[in-house]
Amino acid sequence: MRPLVLFDVDNTLVDRAEGFRRWALEFCSRWRLDADQVPWLEEADGDGLTPKEVFFDRVRKRFGIQEPVASLCDEYRTRKPALIPPCPGVLDGLERLRARGWRIGLVTNGEADVQLATIIAGGLAERVDGSAISGAEGVRKPARRLFELAAERCGAALTPGAWMVGDSLAADVRGGREAGLRTIWIDRGRPLSPDAPRPDFVVSDGAAAIELLIGERERR
């Protein structure tokens, strides 16, 4: 049976943090803001967890920008996906997984158009077998149903031998475990607190997760 692995997208396979930094620099240039405002923008963004309507409302108030929130949101959603690079080593790693017979799926929270644009711009679309985006499905990780949809689109099912890889302990590790999957947490330099859900493995980035998967499979 072909093994299955499901990946998160942002800060797992693509460097969402770097893409946001690039967008923030462009935004500062456009609105004639000092580049030293980029850290404030990054903090206000909350690693993508702050709703964009809330984020841009704060931005307008801080910098005295008159453009409506809706317009700023639309511009952001159109531009930012093109600025997000794939994480180092990930595209080659996905090719290696596929060459070894893995089924590869994406399971990601976010707006459908933004996440789809990110997947395409990051070079992921042609390297995976299926995907499930919360904004298109009406259900978010950690709900089991989103993992099930991703697996189904890969022509597979959630089985004890399948994997989930991601950088969110709540969405990816807890959600993956509750869906019966083995999990790999991408820590991005963050500590694992004692009360956090326990992943099977902890690695620093997506490329390291892929190497671990290949090694685990070859040891069997």
From TrEMBL:
It holds the Pfam family Hydrolase. Its cofactor is Mg(2+). Keywords: Hydrolase, Magnesium. GO terms for molecular function: hydrolase activity. The keyword Magnesium applies. It comes from the Bacteria. Coiled coil: none annotated. SUPFAM superfamilies: HAD-like. InterPro entries: HAD-like_hydrolase (IPR051400), HAD-like_sf (IPR036412), HAD-SF_hydro_IA (IPR006439), HAD_sf (IPR023214). It comes from Actinocorallia aurantiaca. This is HAD family hydrolase.
